[in-house]
Amino acid sequence: MLLGALWLALLMAVAVLVAVSIHPRDIVVSIQPAFIGKSVLVVESQGRRTPFDMHALEALPQRTYTVVTPWYLRSVSFQGPLLRDVLASAGASGTRIEAIAVNDFTAEIPFDHAEAHDMIVALRMDGKPMSARDKGPLFLIYPYDRLPVEEREAYFGRSVWQLDVLRVK
Q: Which residues, including other chains, have CB under 8 Å from residue 106's CB and lie 6 or more apart?
């Protein structure tokens, strides 16, 4: 019994010494998203490829837009992280983005649109995950209803559905 108590006291002393010796400023946190499941998006920038699964995208702050688009006959609600948050999570920077769909359709987007227009990488439509039939699983969405009417057509052309890769140059 006495030996067990001494052993327990020794373990507690070691635990206290370890806890006291940890310096939070020495802890390094990666900006790379935790990769758990199947990749649904890859961000390429500065020679790096950063894969995102749905969990990593869902872990970022989410934004919701209810907008009118040419693809649906009614207002549709889209939810997902801001494009700028996805790019920052991947450590991406540049002047332009090539948004590439699974069928290789590519739209070129000025990098500053991610900041200026609060674009989102939509994961959900009307609260539900998007299937490939619904232009999912990822759809690049501008806040169309906040854009000048005469400019919306150009922005619709940059709204890539079935988004697969963001290549930042």
A: 98, 99, 100, 160
pTM equals 0.77
Other beta carbons within 10 Å of 13: 10
Asked whether residue 25 is assigned to any structural domain, the reply reads no
94 is in which domain, residue-wise?
Answer: 35-168
pLDDT of the residue at 29: 40
Distance CA 112, CA 121 (A): 15
| CATH code of the domain covering residue 142 | 3.90.420.10
Number of domains present in the structure of the chain: 1
Q: What residues have CB less than 8 Å from 161, skipping those under 6 apart?
A: 101, 135, 136, 138, 139, 140
* ω into 148 cis (within 30 of 0): no
- Report yes or no on 107 lying in a domain: yes
Assigned domain for 72 exists: yes
Indicate whether 73 belongs to any domain.
yes
Handedness of CA 68, 69, 73, 76 (dihedral sign): negative
Coil/strand/helix, residue 127: coil
Exposed/middle/buried for residue 12 (C-beta within 10 Å: 0-12, 13-18, 19+) = exposed
- Spans of the chain, pLDDT less than 50: 14, 16-20, 23-32
153: β partners: none
